[in-house]
histidine kinase (Floridaenema fluviatile BLCC-F154), 246 residues
Amino acid sequence: MQLNNSQIKILVIEDEESVRANILEILESEDFEAIGANNGQTGIQEAKNQLPDLILCDIMMPDMDGYTVLSELQEDSLTAIIPFIFLTAKADRDDLRLAMELGADDYITKPCTVTELLSAIASRLKKQATYNQQFQTERSKAKGLQARVKELQNLSKNRADLLQRLTQELRDPLSNITMAIQMLKLAPTEAARAHYLKILQQECAREIAIINQISNLQEFLVPENAKLLQRFKSSLDRTPDENSSN
Protein backbone atom coordinates (compact mmCIF):
# COMPACT_ATOMS: atom_id res chain seq x y z
CA MET A 1 0.00 0.00 0.00
CA GLN A 2 1.63 3.23 -1.20
CA LEU A 3 1.29 6.22 1.14
CA ASN A 4 1.49 9.85 0.07
CA ASN A 5 3.63 11.53 2.75
CA SER A 6 2.57 15.02 1.74
CA GLN A 7 -0.96 14.20 2.89
CA ILE A 8 0.17 12.82 6.25
CA LYS A 9 0.31 15.03 9.34
CA ILE A 10 2.58 14.06 12.25
CA LEU A 11 2.62 15.74 15.66
CA VAL A 12 5.87 15.67 17.65
CA ILE A 13 5.54 16.33 21.40
CA GLU A 14 9.05 16.79 22.79
CA ASP A 15 10.27 19.22 25.44
CA GLU A 16 13.93 19.22 24.36
CA GLU A 17 14.12 21.83 21.62
CA SER A 18 17.13 20.35 19.80
CA VAL A 19 15.59 16.87 19.69
CA ARG A 20 12.22 18.23 18.59
CA ALA A 21 13.79 20.40 15.87
CA ASN A 22 15.84 17.46 14.60
CA ILE A 23 12.81 15.16 14.34
CA LEU A 24 10.73 17.85 12.63
CA GLU A 25 13.51 18.40 10.11
CA ILE A 26 13.71 14.68 9.34
CA LEU A 27 9.96 14.44 8.86
CA GLU A 28 9.81 17.51 6.63
CA SER A 29 12.65 16.13 4.49
CA GLU A 30 10.42 13.10 3.89
CA ASP A 31 7.55 15.42 2.81
CA PHE A 32 5.46 14.85 5.94
CA GLU A 33 3.51 17.76 7.37
CA ALA A 34 5.23 18.07 10.76
CA ILE A 35 3.89 19.91 13.81
CA GLY A 36 5.85 20.51 17.00
CA ALA A 37 4.73 20.91 20.63
CA ASN A 38 7.18 21.71 23.45
CA ASN A 39 5.13 20.23 26.31
CA GLY A 40 2.32 17.81 27.04
CA GLN A 41 -0.48 20.32 27.47
CA THR A 42 0.35 22.07 24.19
CA GLY A 43 0.59 18.66 22.53
CA ILE A 44 -2.91 17.73 23.66
CA GLN A 45 -4.33 20.99 22.30
CA GLU A 46 -2.51 20.54 18.97
CA ALA A 47 -3.76 16.97 18.73
CA LYS A 48 -7.36 18.08 19.23
CA ASN A 49 -7.06 21.05 16.87
CA GLN A 50 -5.02 19.41 14.11
CA LEU A 51 -6.14 15.75 14.39
CA PRO A 52 -2.80 14.42 13.07
CA ASP A 53 -2.39 11.04 11.42
CA LEU A 54 0.26 10.02 13.95
CA ILE A 55 1.73 11.32 17.23
CA LEU A 56 5.33 11.00 18.44
CA CYS A 57 5.55 11.81 22.14
CA ASP A 58 8.39 11.89 24.67
CA ILE A 59 7.70 10.15 27.97
CA MET A 60 9.85 12.15 30.38
CA MET A 61 8.63 15.76 30.25
CA PRO A 62 8.15 18.34 33.01
CA ASP A 63 4.65 19.23 34.28
CA MET A 64 2.96 16.51 32.21
CA ASP A 65 4.62 13.25 31.15
CA GLY A 66 3.83 11.22 28.05
CA TYR A 67 1.71 8.72 29.96
CA THR A 68 -0.65 11.49 31.05
CA VAL A 69 -0.76 12.91 27.52
CA LEU A 70 -1.77 9.52 26.12
CA SER A 71 -4.37 8.96 28.86
CA GLU A 72 -6.05 12.30 28.15
CA LEU A 73 -6.05 11.71 24.41
CA GLN A 74 -7.63 8.30 24.97
CA GLU A 75 -10.61 9.97 26.66
CA ASP A 76 -11.53 11.87 23.48
CA SER A 77 -13.11 9.71 20.77
CA LEU A 78 -11.51 11.81 18.02
CA THR A 79 -7.95 11.59 19.34
CA ALA A 80 -8.17 8.10 20.83
CA ILE A 81 -7.86 6.48 17.40
CA ILE A 82 -4.71 8.40 16.39
CA PRO A 83 -1.65 6.07 16.26
CA PHE A 84 0.64 6.96 19.15
CA ILE A 85 4.39 6.23 19.37
CA PHE A 86 6.40 6.95 22.49
CA LEU A 87 9.89 8.45 22.33
CA THR A 88 11.78 7.30 25.39
CA ALA A 89 15.27 7.26 26.84
CA LYS A 90 14.04 4.65 29.29
CA ALA A 91 14.23 1.05 28.14
CA ASP A 92 12.91 -0.47 31.36
CA ARG A 93 10.51 -3.32 30.64
CA ASP A 94 7.96 -2.15 33.21
CA ASP A 95 7.86 1.33 31.64
CA LEU A 96 7.36 -0.13 28.18
CA ARG A 97 4.63 -2.48 29.44
CA LEU A 98 2.84 0.48 31.00
CA ALA A 99 3.06 2.36 27.71
CA MET A 100 1.45 -0.53 25.83
CA GLU A 101 -1.24 -1.01 28.48
CA LEU A 102 -2.20 2.66 28.19
CA GLY A 103 -2.78 2.20 24.48
CA ALA A 104 0.50 3.19 22.80
CA ASP A 105 1.03 1.57 19.40
CA ASP A 106 4.82 1.48 19.53
CA TYR A 107 7.87 3.04 21.17
CA ILE A 108 11.25 4.30 19.95
CA THR A 109 14.24 4.33 22.26
CA LYS A 110 16.33 7.51 22.18
CA PRO A 111 18.81 8.07 20.72
CA CYS A 112 17.64 6.44 17.48
CA THR A 113 18.81 6.50 13.89
CA VAL A 114 16.88 8.18 11.09
CA THR A 115 16.19 4.75 9.62
CA GLU A 116 14.74 3.45 12.90
CA LEU A 117 12.54 6.51 13.27
CA LEU A 118 11.18 6.43 9.72
CA SER A 119 10.76 2.64 9.78
CA ALA A 120 8.63 2.78 12.95
CA ILE A 121 6.52 5.58 11.49
CA ALA A 122 6.04 3.81 8.14
CA SER A 123 5.07 0.54 9.83
CA ARG A 124 2.45 2.20 12.00
CA LEU A 125 1.01 4.30 9.17
CA LYS A 126 0.67 1.24 6.93
CA LYS A 127 -1.14 -0.69 9.66
CA GLN A 128 -3.47 2.25 10.21
CA ALA A 129 -4.12 2.59 6.46
CA THR A 130 -4.93 -1.13 6.25
CA TYR A 131 -7.28 -0.83 9.21
CA ASN A 132 -9.02 2.19 7.63
CA GLN A 133 -9.39 0.38 4.32
CA GLN A 134 -10.87 -2.70 5.99
CA PHE A 135 -13.20 -0.53 8.03
CA GLN A 136 -14.43 1.30 4.92
CA THR A 137 -14.92 -2.03 3.12
CA GLU A 138 -16.97 -3.41 6.01
CA ARG A 139 -18.90 -0.15 6.18
CA SER A 140 -19.74 -0.35 2.46
CA LYS A 141 -20.85 -3.96 2.87
CA ALA A 142 -23.01 -2.98 5.82
CA LYS A 143 -24.62 -0.17 3.84
CA GLY A 144 -25.43 -2.52 0.96
CA LEU A 145 -26.79 -5.09 3.37
CA GLN A 146 -28.80 -2.42 5.16
CA ALA A 147 -30.40 -1.33 1.88
CA ARG A 148 -31.36 -4.94 1.07
CA VAL A 149 -32.75 -5.51 4.55
CA LYS A 150 -34.75 -2.31 4.36
CA GLU A 151 -36.24 -3.53 1.09
CA LEU A 152 -37.19 -6.84 2.71
CA GLN A 153 -38.60 -5.08 5.75
CA ASN A 154 -40.78 -2.89 3.53
CA LEU A 155 -41.99 -5.97 1.69
CA SER A 156 -42.70 -7.69 4.99
CA LYS A 157 -44.61 -4.66 6.26
CA ASN A 158 -46.82 -4.64 3.18
CA ARG A 159 -47.17 -8.40 2.98
CA ALA A 160 -50.39 -8.61 5.01
CA ASP A 161 -52.11 -5.95 2.89
CA LEU A 162 -50.79 -7.55 -0.28
CA LEU A 163 -52.04 -11.01 0.65
CA GLN A 164 -55.42 -9.62 1.62
CA ARG A 165 -55.70 -7.84 -1.72
CA LEU A 166 -54.63 -10.95 -3.64
CA THR A 167 -57.18 -13.05 -1.73
CA GLN A 168 -59.93 -10.64 -2.73
CA GLU A 169 -58.73 -10.65 -6.32
CA LEU A 170 -58.85 -14.43 -6.32
CA ARG A 171 -62.43 -14.44 -5.11
CA ASP A 172 -63.66 -11.99 -7.77
CA PRO A 173 -62.79 -14.06 -10.87
CA LEU A 174 -63.91 -17.25 -9.13
CA SER A 175 -67.32 -15.67 -8.57
CA ASN A 176 -67.48 -14.65 -12.21
CA ILE A 177 -66.41 -18.13 -13.32
CA THR A 178 -69.12 -19.75 -11.20
CA MET A 179 -71.74 -17.38 -12.60
CA ALA A 180 -70.58 -17.92 -16.19
CA ILE A 181 -70.82 -21.70 -15.78
CA GLN A 182 -74.39 -21.41 -14.50
CA MET A 183 -75.33 -19.05 -17.32
CA LEU A 184 -73.63 -21.32 -19.87
CA LYS A 185 -75.91 -24.20 -18.80
CA LEU A 186 -78.97 -22.01 -19.35
CA ALA A 187 -77.78 -20.30 -22.55
CA PRO A 188 -80.56 -20.55 -25.15
CA THR A 189 -78.41 -19.94 -28.24
CA GLU A 190 -74.91 -20.61 -29.61
CA ALA A 191 -74.18 -16.89 -29.47
CA ALA A 192 -75.04 -16.79 -25.77
CA ARG A 193 -72.91 -19.86 -25.09
CA ALA A 194 -69.98 -18.29 -26.97
CA HIS A 195 -70.40 -15.15 -24.89
CA TYR A 196 -70.22 -17.03 -21.60
CA LEU A 197 -67.32 -19.19 -22.84
CA LYS A 198 -65.40 -15.98 -23.55
CA ILE A 199 -66.11 -14.76 -20.03
CA LEU A 200 -64.86 -18.09 -18.66
CA GLN A 201 -61.61 -17.79 -20.68
CA GLN A 202 -61.00 -14.21 -19.51
CA GLU A 203 -61.66 -14.96 -15.85
CA CYS A 204 -59.50 -18.10 -15.93
CA ALA A 205 -56.63 -16.09 -17.42
CA ARG A 206 -57.10 -13.46 -14.72
CA GLU A 207 -57.06 -16.16 -12.02
CA ILE A 208 -53.85 -17.66 -13.39
CA ALA A 209 -52.16 -14.22 -13.42
CA ILE A 210 -53.06 -13.67 -9.74
CA ILE A 211 -51.75 -17.12 -8.80
CA ASN A 212 -48.48 -16.26 -10.54
CA GLN A 213 -48.23 -13.10 -8.43
CA ILE A 214 -48.58 -15.20 -5.29
CA SER A 215 -45.84 -17.53 -6.53
CA ASN A 216 -43.52 -14.56 -7.07
CA LEU A 217 -44.27 -13.34 -3.54
CA GLN A 218 -43.00 -16.62 -2.10
CA GLU A 219 -39.39 -15.76 -3.00
CA PHE A 220 -39.44 -13.14 -0.24
CA LEU A 221 -40.53 -15.71 2.31
CA VAL A 222 -37.65 -18.21 1.86
CA PRO A 223 -35.17 -19.02 4.69
CA GLU A 224 -32.38 -17.12 2.91
CA ASN A 225 -34.11 -13.85 3.75
CA ALA A 226 -34.16 -14.74 7.43
CA LYS A 227 -30.43 -15.48 7.21
CA LEU A 228 -29.87 -12.11 5.56
CA LEU A 229 -31.65 -10.33 8.41
CA GLN A 230 -29.58 -12.28 10.95
CA ARG A 231 -26.31 -11.42 9.15
CA PHE A 232 -27.23 -7.75 9.15
CA LYS A 233 -28.06 -7.79 12.86
CA SER A 234 -24.77 -9.54 13.63
CA SER A 235 -22.76 -7.00 11.61
CA LEU A 236 -24.33 -4.14 13.55
CA ASP A 237 -23.61 -5.83 16.88
CA ARG A 238 -19.90 -6.12 16.15
CA THR A 239 -17.41 -3.29 16.75
CA PRO A 240 -15.17 -1.91 13.91
CA ASP A 241 -12.18 -3.75 15.44
CA GLU A 242 -14.09 -7.03 15.37
CA ASN A 243 -15.16 -6.41 11.76
CA SER A 244 -11.62 -5.68 10.62
CA SER A 245 -10.28 -8.81 12.29
CA ASN A 246 -12.72 -11.11 10.50
